[in-house]
# Entry
Amino acid sequence: MILRACNETDVKTLTKLEKECFPTPWNENMLLSAFSRIDFVCFVLEEAGKALGYVCGTTLFETAELARIAVAGSWRRKGLGEKLLDAFISCVQERGAQQVFLEVRVSNAPAIALYEKRGFEKGRVRAKYYENGENGLEMKKLL
Ligand code: COA
# Structure
C-alpha cells in the first residue's frame, strides 16, 4: 500500500471515492478548483493502482482545515483513516500550522471517533450546517 500526494490528474479517481463515501460528493470541477489553490493539501492511499482512501484540506499560516477524509467501504476499520489523518496533520504541521479545524455531521459517529482518537476536541455545534438541515460539530486539534 502506498501513500502519495495527489494532483489534478487524480480527480477522476477521487470523484469515484467521493461518490462512494459522501451523501453530497464533490464533483470533478470542485476538485479541480480545490487543486488550483496553492494552500491545498491532498493525499491518497493506493494498492495495486486502486485508490482506497483519500484526505484533503487547506493550510494557511497557522491554521489548517481538514475538508474531506474517506476510505472505501470494504477497507474501513483497518487503520487507513488514521493513516490518512496522520499524513494530513504531519504535512500541515511542516507547513507551519499550529491548529487543525474541521466540521463533521453530528450523526457521523465513526468520523467523530476517529478524530477524537487522534486528539481532536469537540467545539461548537452549528445549527443546520448541512444541506439536509443536520447540525455540524466543529472540532479542533492543537499541534
Ligand atoms: N465506529 C466506531 N469507531 C470508529 C468507526 C466506527 N464505524 N470507524 C472508525 N472508528 C474510530 C475508532 O476509534 C478507530 O480506532 P480502532 O479501530 O482502534 O477502534 C479509529 O476511528 C480509526 O479507524 P480507521 O480504521 O483508521 O478508520 P477508517 O479507515 O474506517 O476510516 C472514516 C474512518 C470516517 C474515514 C470512514 O468511516 C469513512 O470513509 N466514512 C465516510 C466518509 C466520511 O464520513 N468522512 C468524514 C467526514 S469528512
